[in-house]
Amino acid sequence: MKTPRSRPSRRARAEQTLALAECARVCTGYLAGLTAGEDAGGPPSVGPGPARTALVAALGAMLGTAPPPRRAAVGGELFDTLLRAGERAVEAGGERELLLAVELADKALALRGKSRAAWRLRAHALDALGRTEAAVAAYERQLALGSTHPETPVLLAALRERQECLAAALGLFPEDTAAGGAAAAGREFAAAVGAEAPPDVVREAFTAYVGEQVDRYGAGDARVRELAARYGAYCRILDEGRMADPLLAGVRPVGVADFRAHVAGKTACVVVGPGRFEAAGDYELVVRCDDFRGGERADVHAVADPGCESWHRPAGVRLVFADPGETWRAAVRRAVPGAQDGLGDVSLRRPLQDPALLGDGGWGPETSAAFTVLRLLDHLDVSPRLDVHGAGRLRPDVGRWIVSRAKDRTKTRTALR
């Protein structure tokens, strides 16, 4: 015998009726706005084209699926149609369409407050509008409800890294980004960030601000170089995002900010070449490069050799250095699921040649993993102790660079901090 379904309470039915009526009002209001044109005022809408046609069709399908008000009941078909309309609005991408997507997501959540898909739709629309704090909260709510969608942690990490880039950039020249500061572009940049303007508006203001500071202080100024690095990281995240989970073998993607936080405050050593290393216990972070033996500790594993055979050996964070991008992607696909806790994302694939990170040219495309990761750690400058073991195995020009910066040397160890 079938268990009878529990009928919604009178209050629940009334709330559903109100939510559905609001959905119809929002959709018809958007459609009416298209015929009225932008002369009617309000935020700009996307122009005619396939994206807007798909959105209009989705809105029509949703309005056609809705039941009469007196028989309001939210079935799966209606709810899915509502979400699809919101997704088409995000894909259309105009400001009016994104605001429509937020409204549709809110109506969906009024109907089903624990819908992970509705929270995800809300996060996508808010992110595209530049409302980062609210987007982060929506992604966090989606995860708290048990979402297993592979993109969500990646998108959330990208949002947080963008926030960090902007906060750091604003803090470098506080005298120029204050309300009464002398730098016009600095004031406009701070205003765009403070108002949570759309990402393309923030990027335009950020670009002008970087140019202004280069002109005022010179490209060699330490704060200008850090500002340029933050700008490059911000633009890279907007253009490329963070690597999707399948490519990273199901592990946590590690960007520049993540790696800096991972090594900050820890004593570190870079071990060049395989072999027994007796002093591992003296360091909080042991960095292995390319091939190493089973059972050897590897808090960080740096790989630049395409023939590396140590992918299966356990490591904390695995960094893969390769260029161009296709070569790097092919190398990353060799990562073994479960063999590492984190895997470097695209922002760490070529730190020496990347002007947004080190931009340390002149070393050539075949720089070893050992020197690349050592130079990265030296640049980040967050480790109180940084040693190299086996520096004599490196190229002569690299050896000269290390010796010129050495604070202390023994037969096997060179200290840079």
Could you characterize the architecture of this molecule?
It is a single chain. With 417 residues, this protein is an alpha/beta fold. The chain has 3 domains: 10-148, Alpha Horseshoe (Serine Threonine Protein Phosphatase 5, Tetratricopeptide repeat); 156-240, no CATH class; 245-415, no CATH class. It has 15 helices and 9 strands. It has helices at 10-36, 50-65, 76-92, 95-111, 116-129, 132-144, 151-172, 174-177, 184-194, 199-217, 222-240, 256-263, 325-332, 369-380, 396-405; strands at 252-254, 268-271, 285-289, 300-303, 315-320, 340-344, 386-389, 408-409, 413-415. Helix 2 packs antiparallel against helix 3 (76-92) and helix 3 (76-92) packs antiparallel against helix 4 (95-111). Residues 1-6 and 68-74 have low confidence and may be disordered.
User: What value does the average pLDDT take?
Assistant: 80
Tertiary shape? elongated
Low-confidence stretches: 1-6, 68-74
N- to C-terminal distance = 76 Å
State the order of secondary-structure elements, H for helix, E for strand.
HHHHHHHHHHHEHEEEEHEHEHEE
User: How many β-strand runs?
Assistant: 9
Level of helix content? 40-55%
For the largest beta sheet, what order do the strands appear in spatially? Answer: 1-6-5-4-3-2-7-9-8
- What share of residues are in beta strands? 5-15%
Oligomeric state, counting identical vs distinct chains: single chain
**Which secondary-structure class do the elements indicate?**
alpha/beta
Radius of gyration, in Å, reads 26 Å
Main sheet overview: 9 strands, mixed
Per DSSP, the total helix count is 15
Query: Any idea how many domains?
Result: 3
Protein name: Tetratricopeptide repeat protein
InterPro entries: TPR-like_helical_dom_sf (IPR011990)
Organism: Streptomyces synnematoformans
